[in-house]
User: Which sequence fits this backbone?
């Protein structure tokens, strides 16, 4: 590789690590607890000569359960990556608004684009208010439909 290409690629490492930090701290994308009792326990002190714990698994049912757990982990992290991207898009689109800019206390405002953490904080505090303001959004209609399906009339008992 050319030296300039190496420097540019190394500079991208900072962007990737920043994204992982946001995914970890803002979205909590690595806070999953998907497990299967069939997964072998990790041995931190395993020697290179020791057999791999996955080689001990022979049952197809156990392998299927482990595969399902790994797919659940991958799906969860994928959804978190999509959520991070959505927060970034919202931050780019709505950074000029005073509502987002002055939402959180910051000692200094470095630039006009707010962080993913600021957007996530805004959405946590105002999500349901935004749904009430915009009742015709598809998301609002889906949530209201799900709520009406789950709401059954409460039976009242009369104490005598």
Assistant:
């Amino acid at each position: 590789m050319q030296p300039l290409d190496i420097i540019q690629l190394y500079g991208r490492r900072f962007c990737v690590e920043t994204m992982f930090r946001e995914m970890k701290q803002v979205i909590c994308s690595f806070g999953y607890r998907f497990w299967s009792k069939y997964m072998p326990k990790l041995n931190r002190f395993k020697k290179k000569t020791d057999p791999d714990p996955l080689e001990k698994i022979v049952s197809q049912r156990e392998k299927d359960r482990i595969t399902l757990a790994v797919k659940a982990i991958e799906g969860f992290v994928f959804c978190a990556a999509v959520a991070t991207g959505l927060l970034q898009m919202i931050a780019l689109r709505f950074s000029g608004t005073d509502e987002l800019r002055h939402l959180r206390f910051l000692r200094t405002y470095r630039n006009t684009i707010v962080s993913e953490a600021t957007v996530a904080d805004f959405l946590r505090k105002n999500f349901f208010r935004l749904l009430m303001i915009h009742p015709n959004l598809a998301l609002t209609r889906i949530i209201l439909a799900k709520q009406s399906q789950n709401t059954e009339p409460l039976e009242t008992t009369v104490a005598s």
